[in-house]
Design brief:
Layout: H1 2-9, H2 13-28, H3 33-41, H4 46-58, H5 65-78, H6 81-96, H7 104-108, H8 111-127, H9 131-145, E1 147-149, E2 154-155, E3 160-161, E4 167-169, E5 174-175, E6 180-181, E7 186-188, E8 200-201, E9 206-207, E10 212-214, E11 218-219, E12 224-225, E13 230-231, E14 239-242, E15 247-251, H10 257-260
Parallel strand pairs: 1-4, 2-5, 3-6, 4-7, 5-8, 6-9, 7-10, 8-11, 9-12, 10-13, 12-14
Antiparallel strand pairs: 14-15
Length: 271
């Protein structure tokens, strides 16, 4: 009975599906066999596959993939929530990104997903007091993926960063669960102040491409920020804001904007 319970607790439907998709991918395109085997099928768990994949993407002449893999393995072994968050992120990308048709795509190909997972390892290092190593991870994520997330920022689960290029998230920023954002989003400060100076994004928020959210302001849960907007003041829950500077233009229009990815403004314009 105890063995049965142990087997049940180790079932990982996300990892099982990843492995099934990996086998199908090799059948469809044998030339990718080496990549798919080394990245997925060679491993026994999602956390092991993530540690391997991130170490290859972030390695350089300054730090080898072996050293980075040891760091990532240590992080995943110490904090199981990192792998739990990764599972939620995989599902989020699959459900929200129209270009994502399989679970394996984020792990193998999508730099937004990979950047967030690397940030999570850097954030673990930051919490452990290993700040210089966390800064190194931040630097390599920026150089490799074009995404700059300070390791002290706090980011929830179920995150989807589509395309991801030029995304910047500052040191004291907080991002809730089930948030979606597109490329060129900035969660930044407004000056040289050193205290709590970055935005606090609620759960279920959708942030359009090129939007800039600046200062220690709060964006309420389930709100929408239109593409290209500059947000300088608090945003109420379940609200759509647009413009430079951003103003309220209506309700969010649905219960979970970050999931529906509906970017049309009231009256038919694009968010």
């Amino acid at each position: 009975m105890a063995e049965t319970r142990a087997r049940i607790t180790t079932v990982d439907p996300v990892w099982n599906r990843l492995c099934q998709e990996a086998e199908a991918a090799i059948r469809d395109e044998p030339l990718l066999g080496g990549l798919v085997h080394s990245s997925i099928l060679h491993h026994k768990s999602l956390k092991a596959a993530l540690a391997y994949r991130l170490s290859l993407k972030l390695s350089s002449g300054e730090m080898s993939d072996q050293m980075l893999r040891e760091i990532a393995d240590e992080a995943y072994a110490s904090d199981p929530s990192l792998a739990d968050a990764a599972r939620a992120d995989v599902v989020a990308v699959f459900e929200r990104d129209a270009a994502c048709h399989r679970y394996l795509q984020p792990l193998l190909y999508f730099k937004g997903f990979q950047a967030v997972q690397a940030y999570r390892v850097g954030h673990w290092l930051w919490k452990e007091g290993r700040h210089d190593l966390a800064y190194f991870i931040q630097m390599r994520v920026s150089e490799s993926f074009g995404v700059d997330i300070h390791p002290a920022a706090r980011i929830g689960r179920g995150i989807m960063i589509d395309h991801a290029h030029s995304v910047v998230i500052g040191e004291t920023a907080v991002v809730g669960d089930n948030v979606s954002m597109l490329h060129s989003v900035t969660l930044g400060g407004t000056g040289k102040e050193e205290e709590d100076r970055h935005p606090k994004i609620g759960d279920g928020v959708l942030i359009g491409a090129g939007a800039k959210v600046l200062g220690n302001i709060r964006v309420g849960s389930c709100s929408r920020i239109a593409a290209g907007s500059v947000v300088l003041h608090d945003v109420p829950e379940a609200t759509t804001v647009a413009g430079v500077p951003a103003k309220i233009v209506g309700k969010a229009g649905c219960a979970q904007p970050s999931v529906t990815m509906d970017q049309l403004l009231p009256g038919g314009g694009d968010a």
